[in-house]
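Protocol step 4 of 6: structure prediction from sequence.
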Amino acid sequence: MSSADLIGSVGWTLVHFLWQGTLIGCATALVLMALSNARPESRYLAACLGLLLCLAWPATELALRLHGGEGTGGDAMVLFAAGLVAGAPIDQGWATVLAEQLVPIVATWAACALALALRMVSGLLWIGRAAAHERRDAPWQARIDTLALRFGIGRAVRLRVVAGLASPVTAGWWRPVVLVPAALVSGMPAPLLEALLAHEMAHIQRHDYLVNLGQNLVETLFFYHPAVWWISGRIRVEREQIADDIAARQLGEPRRLALALSELEKIQFPTHHLAQAANGGDLMSRIKRLLRPQSHTLGQALNWKAGIPMLGLAAVSAAVFAHAAPAAPQAQPDVPAVADFKSCDRPLYPAESIKLHHTGTVSLDFMVATNGKVADTRLKKSSGHAALDDAAQTALAKCTFKPATTKGKPVPAWTAVQYVWSLD
């Protein structure tokens, strides 16, 4: 596969995720609304499935594109979505506009995704250094060992005291570590700090660190879609709520955990994104829920503000498409597109078709963009055999053309070609 095919496949996958992610976000919102009075575990599972679909859907599409060699073409769904957003007539010019922007789209995405990936790696390195070099505290290590036994955790849980940290955080799966702020060790009453550590034990018991890493992966790949950030945020809110419930049951004192969180609420500093922290989510909502579990349900209703990011995406898309709306390609340009036959590879006769003695003629209409690339193809008349039709479209997509012109200016234009498959 050529680099152009790879860029095309990745680019169209990223473009498609604009509408795919919006659909997933809306569906997830509806499910969460239906589960508003359910247990937080149910909402957590629904949000996790939504985020997993945000990864699985484009990954499947990319695999199909790479396997089928369709990376250089658009499809009807992209045109349909563009027409709906812009309120404009749907024409094949949209495919040309998008196809010509795939290289900068992929380049910008790759640069931003790389920056986020480096940020994630630096966070993992920081956690590793903290676990290896920060101060140990024997009395609190003994307390956390006791808590681990109460929670049924068979792995050793390490405790490190870190200066400058605002809240206890947990990282690691096989060798988990709890990082505790030095200010809390010296200044918070021991029963309250123990309640916060019980919350961290709940995260370790549930292997939440692995899910959190998965969230960071999806956020890194699809950082440009607000639905991903919203769903991921809902996962974190529900996860903290679940950990609160588990810790409160183990302590037998929900009020003690609520009091510990209220003390922590006074210190509002950001904690590391790769680790679970006791001050995650809305602390005041969590405190109220612990004190009045029957009358306060965090998921009782989704705030209408949750839809603002996706509405913003639609508005931005509308503005972009409105200003980039292409003129419909002229049916009769002054000078038609001309093929550079040196750029066209000889079509490969499918091995299975040779074995079955399949022959026939494929008639194709195709659009040549202003950059000379094939922006879209349409099957006008089939050979009667899908493999031969696909092979013809794949070969055509690799050709370069001298674009059609009108008054000396390159314009997108449709033209036609026939592939004759013969075994003579």
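Step 5 (inspection) to follow. DSSP finds 15 helices and eleven strands in the chain.
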